[in-house]
Design goal:
This protein has one domain: Aldolase class I (TIM Barrel). 35% of the residues lie in helices and 28% in strands. Strands 1-4-5-6-7-10-11-12 form an 8-stranded parallel barrel, surrounded by 6 helices. It has 10 helices and 12 strands. The relative contact order is 0.15. A hairpin with a 2-residue loop joins strand 1 and strand 2. It is of the alpha/beta class.
Length: 251
């Protein structure tokens, strides 16, 4: 069995790391380069960098900042935000990203998944899905959670897999920033439907929340932001706890 992964997420706005609740009320959480280096030195398995306003502002991801972060770490590095073409994805991979994360652009142009996978391999393509549970359905949202579309989390994830995605990053908008646990029922259904890895995102607040995401949600990796940024949970201690709970992690 593969080790479960712990992934800090750097949400970037105006060259700073920010964090909010339910995708709103963003607060400063520190310098992204310093945070990235700290996480790489303190047990993070991977790092995710999301330029959260690039799509809304219709601009490319911050290449120079990506280069600085890549130079500061020695762990796999995923970058997302504003990637609308295979050329934009290539620019980020050449700047130091190991993977690119596409979200809104993938919904608007599903062929983009295949184009990037064909050029760089499926392992380089993460399809991020922001979804909210309402009216008995997990509905997909675009533009940083601002725009609802007529897609179900589960059908879209399956389509993304068929098109060449190597991984799904599922963020529950209902749980984001609440620190009340991940959307484990949805995660479990998603992992049962898919053959590719699923990253859980949204809701981490305690050591047990991570354990539950891995056991109840069957997630392959768990991503979090504020609990790491504000030192509420330290990754080495989290991994020790998970190992004690018989969950395979890299120490």
């Amino acid at each position: 069995m593969l080790a479960k992964r712990i992934i800090p997420c750097l949400d970037i706005k105006d060259n700073r790391t920010v964090k909010g609740i339910n995708f709103k009320a963003l607060k400063d959480a520190g310098d992204p380069v310093e945070l990235a280096h700290y996480y790489a030195e303190n047990g993070a398995d991977e790092l995710v960098f999301l330029d959260i306003t690039a799509t809304q502002e219709k601009r490319k991801t911050l290449i120079k900042l990506v280069e600085k972060v890549a130079a500061a770490i020695n762990i796999p590095f995923t970058v997302g935000g504003g990637i609308t073409t295979k050329e934009a994805a290539a620019d980020l991979i050449y700047a130091g990203a190991d993977k690119v994360s596409i979200n809104s652009a993938a919904v608007r142009n599903p062929d983009l998944i295949t184009q990037i996978a064909d050029r760089f391999g499926a392992q380089s393509v993460v399809v991020a899905i922001d979804a909210k549970y309402h009216h008995n359905n997990w509905q997909v949202f675009l533009n940083g959670g601002r725009q609802a579309v007529a897609l179900s989390l589960f059908s879209w994830a399956q389509q993304a897999q068929q098109l060449g995605a190597g991984e799904i990053l599922f963020t529950s908008m209902n749980h984001d920033g609440t620190k009340k646990g991940f959307a484990n029922k949805a995660l479990s259904k998603l992992t049962d439907l898919l053959k590719i890895p699923v990253i859980a995102s949204g809701g981490a607040g305690s050591y047990k929340d991570f354990k539950d995401a891995f056991i109840d949600g069957k997630a392959d990796a768990a991503l979090a932001a504020s609990v790491f940024h504000y030192n509420q949970i330290k990754i080495p201690e989290l991994k020790k706890y998970l190992k004690q709970e018989n969950i395979i992690v890299r120490i």
